[in-house]
Amino acid sequence: MIVDFHMHSQCSDGQLVPQELVDLAVTRGCAQIAITDHDTVAAYAELDLQSQPIRLVTGCEFSTQWQGREIHIVGLNLDLQAADLLDGLASQQQARSQRAERIAVQLARHGFVDAYAGALKFAQGTSVGRPHYARYLVELGAVVNFQQAFKRYLAAGKPAYVRAEWATLEQVCSWIGAAEGVAVLAHPLKYKMTLTKLRALLTVFKAAGGSAIEVVSGAQQPEQTRRLAGLARQFGLQASIGSDFHQPGQPWAALGQVAPLPVDCDPVWSGW
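^ thats the sequence. predicted structure below, dont judge the formating
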């Protein structure tokens, strides 16, 4: 069974509308998916959840901070009417808006005086984020591609980088728990932590109510998958799968084209 519980639509920084995501998942043979936009569940308001040909699991990718690092937690199988969840998402959106404004100030100091308006065009009514600024810089011809925009201006340590004031990992796990969802540590290898540091993160994550880890995240080496499966077993965590799809043409994050879980993992969807 093909599942993909990590992808993004135009409601955050993806390029497809929610129904296009569902349709693509169907063509890729997915049985279950979750749309996990950044700090918003707006995609689900655009879909008729009962009439889809595959199972849609409610989801969201939350930005958190832990020991000065930005850590992402995916919430799955959420009650989208839970008051604590909605309040938490509102505070996250406010943090996103404040960050976007501060990024525009930094870019203006480097000659991009209309950056916010330019990025807003790509955001299409959603919160402006760094990917929207990147697309604007590409459109201007200031950089040749999305990756160069981050490398020159938007990545950590670069001139227009602004650290956001996200909720703590513990707060986000509590919102997910209040919504009767499952908290999943997203793309653990992306943080480039030492094994000791990653173990420390997993200890705090589980104590906060976290119950799963993305054992498969996009295209990764079999040895990486085995290592993450071992950590899942060691910490008593369930295992999830997600492509982190944002747009077509990115083979490292292709919707539904992810490796299966190792047979000794406990799938996060096993109890649904």
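The chain has a mean pLDDT of 95.
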